């Protein structure tokens, strides 16, 4: 790399309006996130129409702040990278159309980034990626194991067959009367608990790296229902601890097994649920035992942000990937390789 | 003075570039195609056609709604991003006023309307007074029957404008009788040149960062939440 590469990243796939400038794909120059969590908390979850309305209010402010914090003029950028999908379509369209208008006005190329590729590349901001690499993506919308042989090559080896891990957390939190989002609340309760209810583990077939969390969610609901029928008292902390143990054990065991089978040099965790203390501790311990390098980015880079989109966008830019003014939001976009 | 005008508030798409009071180029279409696929390519083509660079424009006019939530947001997002990064003034104009502007010189009331499903419309009531288009009634979201009842009471001739007028023609004629005039098809689509014309007349300038669509309707989840809050307060 002779000349430094500066990429502006924009992310609006869910309820965070975010913009960031990244240098050479691995150095954060600015990273701005406007969260709507307070507004969305009223509804106990993300309402797509409300999310889109907030994005329109925030988008130019957030981009301006990312540029001014970076101390860069638009003409000093090399490209604009934006989340093309998956996500809420109305929310994606705000980031995409702002990115297109900005790129057009300033004569910059535009690059459409897959949101999950972004989550994986968040790790590139902490340490160089080494291949083969195994990524565990756990968030409100995803639970996936992705094998990477190279930059831009993604092979899905396992995914959830029903609820995403984060979704299961939110649903169980609702059953326990905990606030939205459920992940941090359950993690905290589980951490403080002195006991745990025994819940089943969904291993599925012996050779499968797929996940399933809907059975566990039902088990929690049944446990609470049965106990209340008998006039017993449900202790939320014990339920939270039991639920979390089940989720964490399945995620850790399958990730470890895949890492060994594919003989990977590096394992990374990504996505909002990767910020979970219980999961992080379990994965760290398991991989330390095996001597396989394991990394999780700091919380601010696990939850949705634009730095990760700019990081993945830089790898795509270097590979010659370019989008155009006809870019549309792709709510169901699948993670396909951009290089072989 | 060079203006760029953008209207993506409803199914039709219109983009125009106007220089010193003359249209250099305008594209109008009314296809059920996602504006995110078409709007920026059309804008790019239009600049190519008139051989201008984005930075050559002096001001931007955009249709601020009401209309399709997603449609309005695409136009507003493009317009505010261009205005902000090019450091040009931004003017928002009602999507209904833009339609009403097609009826210049009509002697009577002008009712631009857009279908909002389930027998509801977005509609406004306008009139040209001394060459200026004045809103007689604010744009609103309402039932077609309520709209027609209130217009009937005016006892004046009313011109209905908009590509969705045909859907309601029978009801309109039934209630309004000889006072109803249905605009012919060349007047049914919003035109970005009219949008620019209205923007120039308004003399108003937006705060670009704070600029948001005029939805004329709160989101359903928010309406339910407010209702819930009121109920909880009432039962205390
Ligand atoms: Zn995410």
TrEMBL record, chain A:
<feature type="binding site">
    <location>
        <position position="170"/>
    </location>
    <ligand>
        <name>substrate</name>
    </ligand>
</feature>
<comment type="similarity">
    <text>Belongs to the KAE1 / TsaD family.</text>
</comment>
<keyword id="KW-0479">Metal-binding</keyword>
<feature type="binding site">
    <location>
        <position position="119"/>
    </location>
    <ligand>
        <name>Fe cation</name>
    </ligand>
</feature>
<dbReference type="InterPro" id="IPR017861">
    <property type="entry name" value="KAE1/TsaD"/>
</dbReference>
<feature type="binding site">
    <location>
        <begin position="137"/>
        <end position="141"/>
    </location>
    <ligand>
        <name>substrate</name>
    </ligand>
</feature>
<protein>
    <recommendedName>
        <fullName>tRNA N6-adenosine threonylcarbamoyltransferase</fullName>
        <ecNumber>2.3.1.234</ecNumber>
    </recommendedName>
</protein>
<feature type="binding site">
    <location>
        <position position="183"/>
    </location>
    <ligand>
        <name>substrate</name>
    </ligand>
</feature>
<keyword id="KW-0012">Acyltransferase</keyword>
<keyword id="KW-0819">tRNA processing</keyword>
<comment type="function">
    <text>Required for the formation of a threonylcarbamoyl group on adenosine at position 37 (t(6)A37) in tRNAs that read codons beginning with adenine. Is involved in the transfer of the threonylcarbamoyl moiety of threonylcarbamoyl-AMP (TC-AMP) to the N6 group of A37, together with TsaE and TsaB. TsaD likely plays a direct catalytic role in this reaction.</text>
</comment>
<feature type="binding site">
    <location>
        <position position="187"/>
    </location>
    <ligand>
        <name>substrate</name>
    </ligand>
</feature>
<dbReference type="InterPro" id="IPR000905">
    <property type="entry name" value="Gcp-like_dom"/>
</dbReference>
<keyword id="KW-0408">Iron</keyword>
<feature type="binding site">
    <location>
        <position position="276"/>
    </location>
    <ligand>
        <name>substrate</name>
    </ligand>
</feature>
<keyword id="KW-0963">Cytoplasm</keyword>
<dbReference type="GO" id="GO:0061711">
    <property type="term" value="F:tRNA N(6)-L-threonylcarbamoyladenine synthase activity"/>
</dbReference>
<dbReference type="InterPro" id="IPR043129">
    <property type="entry name" value="ATPase_NBD"/>
</dbReference>
<feature type="binding site">
    <location>
        <position position="304"/>
    </location>
    <ligand>
        <name>Fe cation</name>
    </ligand>
</feature>
<dbReference type="InterPro" id="IPR022450">
    <property type="entry name" value="TsaD"/>
</dbReference>
<feature type="binding site">
    <location>
        <position position="115"/>
    </location>
    <ligand>
        <name>Fe cation</name>
    </ligand>
</feature>
<keyword id="KW-0808">Transferase</keyword>
TrEMBL record, chain B:
<dbReference type="GO" id="GO:0061711">
    <property type="term" value="F:tRNA N(6)-L-threonylcarbamoyladenine synthase activity"/>
</dbReference>
<dbReference type="InterPro" id="IPR043129">
    <property type="entry name" value="ATPase_NBD"/>
</dbReference>
<dbReference type="Pfam" id="PF00814">
    <property type="entry name" value="TsaD"/>
</dbReference>
<keyword id="KW-0808">Transferase</keyword>
<feature type="domain" description="Gcp-like">
    <location>
        <begin position="32"/>
        <end position="225"/>
    </location>
</feature>
<protein>
    <submittedName>
        <fullName>tRNA (Adenosine(37)-N6)-threonylcarbamoyltransferase complex dimerization subunit type 1 TsaB</fullName>
        <ecNumber>2.3.1.234</ecNumber>
    </submittedName>
</protein>
<dbReference type="InterPro" id="IPR000905">
    <property type="entry name" value="Gcp-like_dom"/>
</dbReference>
<dbReference type="InterPro" id="IPR022496">
    <property type="entry name" value="T6A_TsaB"/>
</dbReference>
<keyword id="KW-0012">Acyltransferase</keyword>
């Amino acid at each position: 790399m002779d000349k430094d590469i500066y990429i502006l990243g924009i992310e609006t796939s869910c309820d965070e309006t975010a913009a960031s400038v990244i240098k050479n794909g691995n150095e954060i120059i600015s990273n701005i996130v406007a969260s709507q969590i307070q507004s969305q908390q009223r509804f106990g979850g993300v309402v797509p129409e409300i999310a889109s309305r907030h994005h329109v209010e925030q988008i130019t402010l957030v981009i301006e702040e990312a540029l001014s914090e970076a101390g860069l003029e638009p003409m000093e950028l090399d490209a604009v990278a934006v989340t093309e999908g998956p996500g809420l379509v109305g929310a994606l369209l705000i980031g995409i159309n702002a990115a297109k208008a900005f790129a057009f006005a300033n004569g910059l190329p535009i690059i459409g980034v897959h949101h999950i590729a972004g989550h994986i590349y968040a790790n590139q901001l902490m340490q160089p990626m080494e291949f083969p690499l195994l990524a565990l993506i756990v968030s409100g919308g995803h639970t996936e194991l992705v094998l990477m042989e190279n930059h831009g090559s993604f092979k899905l080896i396992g995914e959830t067959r029903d609820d995403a891990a984060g979704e299961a957390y939110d649903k169980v939190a609702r059953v326990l009367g905990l606030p939205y989002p459920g992940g941090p609340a359950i993690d905290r309760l589980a951490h403080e608990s002195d006991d745990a209810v025994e819940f089943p583990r969904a291993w599925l077939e012996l050779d499968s790296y797929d996940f399933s969390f809907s059975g566990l969610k039902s088990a929690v609901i049944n446990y609470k229902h049965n106990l209340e029928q008998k006039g017993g008292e449900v202790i939320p902390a014990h339920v939270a601890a039991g639920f979390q143990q089940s989720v964490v054990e399945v995620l850790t065991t399958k990730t470890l097994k895949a890492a060994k089978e594919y003989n990977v040099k590096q394992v990374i965790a990504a996505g909002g649920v990767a910020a979970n203390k219980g999961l992080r501790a379990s994965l760290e311990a398991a991989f330390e035992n095996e001597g396989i390098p394991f990394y999780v980015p700091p919380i601010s880079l696990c939850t949705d942000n634009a730095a990760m989109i700019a990081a993945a966008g830089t790898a795509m830019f270097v590979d010659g990937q370019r989008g155009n003014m006809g870019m549309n939001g792709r709510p169901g976009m699948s993670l396909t390789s951009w290089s072989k | 003075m060079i203006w760029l005008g953008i209207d993506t508030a409803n199914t039709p798409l219109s983009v125009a570039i106007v220089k010193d009071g003359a249209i250099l180029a305008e594209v109008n279409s009314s296809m059920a195609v996602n504006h995110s696929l078409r709007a920026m390519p059309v804008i790019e083509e239009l600049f190519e056609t008139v051989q201008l660079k984005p930075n050559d424009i002096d001001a931007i006019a955009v249709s601020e709604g009401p209309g399709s939530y997603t449609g309005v947001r695409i136009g507003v997002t493009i317009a505010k991003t261009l205005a902000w990064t090019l450091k040009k003034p931004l003017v928002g104009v009602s999507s209904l006023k833009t339609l009403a502007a097609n009826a210049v010189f009509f002697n009577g009331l002008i009712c631009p309307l857009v279908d909002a499903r389930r027998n509801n419309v977005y509609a406004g009531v306008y009139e040209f007074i001394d060459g200026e288009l004045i809103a007689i009634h604010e744009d609103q979201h309402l039932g077609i029957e309520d709209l027609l009842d209130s217009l009937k009471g005016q006892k004046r001739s009313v011109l209905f404008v908009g590509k969705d007028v045909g859907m309601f023609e029978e009801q309109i004629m039934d209630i309004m009788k000889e006072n109803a005039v249905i605009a012919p098809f060349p007047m049914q689509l919003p035109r970005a040149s009219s949008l620019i014309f209205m923007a120039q007349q308004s003399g108003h300038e937006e705060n670009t960062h704070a600029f948001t669509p005029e939805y004329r309707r709160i989101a359903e989840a928010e309406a339910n939440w407010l209702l819930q809050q009121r109920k909880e307060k009432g039962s205390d």
